[in-house]
Amino acid sequence: MPPKPRVKIPVHVFVYTIAFLPGAAYAHYWYKNAPSDEEHEEELRKKYSHIIEQSRDKQAQMTTFLQNMKDPHSDQQKQMNQILLGGRGQKKRLHAVDEKIYGTEEGAKLQQEAQLKAKKGKRKRKNKGSADADGAVGDSGKSDLKSGQQSVSVKGSVAAVAVVGALAVGACFFLGGKRSQ
């Protein structure tokens, strides 16, 4: 009979201890050989000086922006008010303006021509819409063809529903007419 052990360790504790040992050893090694704070800061300045400068610049810009937002008479506050108004305080152009033509007789003529074209386009669309409703515009054979295709598809749908209904009724009669619960 083997001798009785003095210390009894549960299996799960032993396995977790073995799994944890490499991580603990590496942490101890890093702690003993880690660079000092000064060395670490010097290394960061060498490698990432441009990023640090950009970050400081952005922080300074944000600070001045927030300070200007607190001042009700600053240009920044005026710009933010214009943005918040959303253009309701002033008239905005929805298209580009050619400065050479703007305010001249040629510009006025071009504007009148554009307005006439727009009115003609509206009339054509209005006439076309009312004529389509009457069925007088275009080839009447095409509209008959479309309505014929629609009636064929409607007939097919009705037939499919009738077949499925007949199958359902037949299944009820052949299977005893009882619902399974």
Percentage of helical residues? over 70%
Strand pairing plus helix content: what structural class?
mainly alpha
> How much beta, percentage-wise?
under 5%
Flag low-confidence runs: 136-141
Shape: flat
**Mean pLDDT level:** 80
The helix/strand series, from N terminus to C terminus, equals HHHHH
Query: What multimeric state do the chains show?
Result: single chain
The end-to-end span amounts to 66 Å
Q: Number of DSSP strands?
A: 0
What report would you give on this structure?
The chain is mainly alpha-helical. It has helices spanning 11-33, 37-70, 75-85, 105-134, 140-174. The protein is 73% helix and 0% strand. The longest helix has 35 residues, at 140-174.
Strand and helix layout:
Blueprint (H helix, E strand, L loop, with lengths): L10 H23 L3 H34 L4 H11 L19 H30 L5 H35 L7
Brief summary:
By secondary structure, this protein is an all-alpha fold.
Features:
181 residues; mainly alpha
